[in-house]
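=== RUN LOG ===
request id: a7f3
mode: sequence -> structure
chains: 1
length: 584
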Amino acid sequence: MSECNPEDNFDICEKRRAILEGDGHMLVIGGPGSGKTTIALLKARRYVIEGLTAEQSVLFLSFSNAAIRRILESAGGILTPDIAKRVDIKTYHSFAWEILKSHGYLTSKKRRLSIVSAQDAAVREAGLKKDLWSAEQARMYIENGLVTYDQFAPRAAEILNRSDAAKACFNAAYPLIIVDEFQDTDEAQWELIRALSSGSSVIALGDREQRIYEWRDGVSEHRLSEFGDELKASVFDFQNENNRSPATGIVGYARSLLSPNVVQDLPDDIERRSFQPGMFSVRFRLCVIRTWNETKKRIKKTERNDIKIAIAARSKQMVRKISDVLANPIMIQNKEHKPIPHDVLFDQMQIVLAARVIANIMGSSHLSLDHRISQCLRRIADMLRSANNATNIKNSNTLQNWAQKCDDGKRPTTKCVKALVRIIEALDNDGFIGSPTKDWLMVRKAFERADVEHLTKTAEFARYLRLLRRGSLIEEELTSLWRTSGNYLGAEEALDRAILQDQLLDSSKESASISVMNMHQLKGREYDGVLLVEDQYQNFKGRETEPPYMETRRLLQVSLTRARHYALVLSATKNATLDVIFDN
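=== RESULT ===
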C-alpha cells in the first residue's frame, strides 16, 4: 500500500473494511450522501494496486455523463493520476458502443456499424406502434448496420451471450466492474451485467428509494434484490447514513416524504414560496435571488466562490418557461433586473432538428432554388414528425408532399413555400459575412419574421441551440468550412458530427453557476442549492391519480437531496404538489 493512503482520510467502519478486503459480487445499498461512491473508489484503488495485471483496468459504469463528472470529482481526492488511468469510468452507452464497434459484425451483416442519432431515430419511430418500431430497429441493425441508442445494451448483451471469445476479452480487460445507480437498470442493461458477471466481479451501488425511472420499459422495483439473489452477492447496507449535507435537515425531510403517514415540519434549510396568478415571472426571479443569497450565506465560512445552483421543474415546457424568464430583463419594484446567465439541459430532439434546418439553408447555396426549398421542407417535416403525434405527423406528410413537388419542378404556391422563397432570395442578396454566429442568427431571424407557423416554430426551437452548450464546437466546425472554401457547404454534416459526438461522449456540460433542467436530470448531480419550480398546471406530480403518490414522493426526495446546503420550492397558490400529497 502507498505511504499516503487515502483510506486514512475516511472513517472505515467494519462494513466498509469488509468491502475493501472482500472478493466476489457485492451489493452496496445506501441513500444520498451515504458514501457509496467513495467506498467504491477506494475499492477500485485497492484492486488496481493489489489485483490487476498491466493490461487490466477497473470498469466503473454509470448512466449519465453528469454522474461520471461527479464520480471523477470524488476520484480526485482518492485516485492518484497513475491509478486513475487504470479506472475506466464510462456510461452504459459508451461501454456498449465499445462492444458493438469491436464485435458487432457477429450479429449484423455489416462489418462496420453506424449510430442512428437520437433525433433521427425519433423521426423514424414517429407513427409506428411499439412492436413495429422494434422490428424496424432489428431490420436496420441486421441489414444495414444501423444501431439506435435503444439497441446499444440489448445488442451488446447478445454478443456477449453468443460469443464466449468476445465475453472472455472483456472479462480479461475488466476483472472488476462497479455499477452505479443499479436500481435504474432496465432488462437489457441488467442482461449485459449478468453476462459479464460470469467472469468478472461486479459491485452494484444502489438505493431502493431513488427509483425515479420506473416509467422506462424494463425497469423493475425488484432489480437490487434480483442482483443480490441471482449473483449470490454480499450485501452491505448504508441506508441511513448521510455525508452530503450532514449539518442540514434536507436529507431527513426528504426521506420523510417516502413515509405517507409522516408529515414533518420544514427544516431551516428548506423553504416554500408561492405566487398568485400572473405573478410567476416576478416571484420566480425573487426566488432565484433568495436561493443564491441563502446558499451563499450557508457556505460563506468555507470561503468558496464557485457556488452552483440548480433550478428544476418536471416538464420540458416549464424548463423553457424558466429559461425565458432568466434570459430576459425584468422590472421589479421599478428596478430593472438584468438577464441571468445559465445553462439549460432538456429534451433536444426538435431543437437539433430545427438547427439542421438552419444549417441546411446556410450550406445549400450551390443548389437550385427548387432543390433548396425541397431540402428545407423535408427537414422541417422531420422536426414536426419527431414530436410523434397525429397533428404533427399529418403536417409532416404535407410538407414532404410539397417537397416532392419542388423536386418535380412543380413548386406549390402555398404561403409556406412562398415565404421560403423570399427568405432564400433575401439571404442570397445580402450574403453571409463569414462569422458563423452572426450568419446563423441572420438565418434564424429570417425564419422568425416569416409569419408562417412552421417557419416561426423552427426559429423558436433553433433559438434554444445556445442552451445546449454546443455553440463552441459547432462554431469551430463552421469557421473551418468558411476558411477553407469561403462558404458553408457541408454545414449540415458538420452540425450532425458535432451533435453525435456530444450525444455519445458528453451531452451535459455545465459552465454557468446556475443550471436549469428537469427533475429527472438532477439524478447523479450535486449542487450547493436547489430551486424546484412548478405552476398550477405543470407541477411535480407524475401519472399517478391516487394517493400516496409514491412516484412523485420519490422524485421530490431525490431532487431535494441534490442540495448540499439549501433548497427552495416555488409553487402556485393552487394545486401545489406538497399540499396535494399531504392533504391525502
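=== NOTES ===
The chain is about 50% helix and 15% strand.
The longest strand covers residues 563-572.
=== END ===
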